Amino acid sequence: MTTATVSPLRLTWLHLRFQFLETVRVPIAVLGNLLFPALAMFFFVVPQEAVAGDPVTATTAVAGLSLFAVCSASLFTYGLGVAEDRQLPFDPFLRSLPAGPGPRMAARVGNGAIFALFGVVPLVLIGWLFTAASVTPLQLLAGVGTILLVSVPFVLLGMAVGYSLSAKAALPVVQVVLFPLAFAGGLFLPPQLFPSWLDGVSLATPTRAGRDLLVEALTGAPASAVAWPVLLGWTALVAALAVLAYRRDEGRRFR
């Protein structure tokens, strides 16, 4: 008698579909990630003619706020979402299945990328309608690919927080992590305005690396030489932290 097996790709797709439907069934969770970056764009970019009227500067501003939307969606959705899932009785059942953690964690990364793109859409529309931001179709495609790639370490960081802390503790930790990283990464102010010491710190952050790579994809301005090593290094680090947090939580709850 043979037993049918399900491929890891099929399992990942099933988890991805489940997680996507679970998220969109709470519309405010989606709208919150869409509104704040869009409002920041209206308040701080559109009224400034020197910024909104220059194609390169406006495109750079859209890129920075788009990355902030990605960071916010990833950290809040997974920092809080994973912590809340751990409190539900369905979570231990899923983790007791023989599929292992791989498909579920891969699906979380994919779901994070999808909602990262959702957060970028309003910013692209505002930039197109109300500023001089301009990109070619090829640059736009490169930007989408870059932002999907850049979202990965932030999804993994959110998962590390979610598997390490309770929902009550995860919320303030996500807030403490998100805004300093966004500011230090040049998502609110151009890094050219930073003092030299802050610029040095900024270059070591995943937000600055992601911002530089995204600006390069959209405008052609060269990214810093350390952008790729920093982004890949942070991705490896937070992936290890996410796996460690998952295993620690599993050992604590299922021994």
Describe it for me?
The protein is 79% helix and 0% strand. By secondary structure, the protein is mainly alpha-helical. The chain has one domain. Helix 2 packs antiparallel against helix 4, helix 4 crosses helix 10 (206-219) and helix 7 (137-164) runs antiparallel to helix 8 (167-184). The protein starts with 7 loop residues before the first helix and ends with a helix.
Backbone shape: globular
Oligomer: single chain
How would a textbook summarize the main sheet?
none
User: What is the string of SSEs from the N terminus onward?
Assistant: HHHHHHHHHHH
Q: Please tally the helical runs, counting DSSP H or I stretches of 4 or more residues.
A: 11
Which key terms come to mind for this protein?
255 residues, mainly alpha
Tell me briefly what this model is.
The chain has eleven helices and no strands.
Topology (SSEs and partners):
Elements (H helix, E strand, L loop, with lengths): L7 H17 L2 H18 L4 H4 L2 H31 L4 H6 L6 H29 L6 H28 L2 H18 L11 H8 L2 H14 L7 H28 L1
Helix pairs in contact: 1-6, 2-4, 2-6, 4-6, 4-7, 4-8, 4-10, 6-7, 7-8, 7-10, 7-11, 10-11
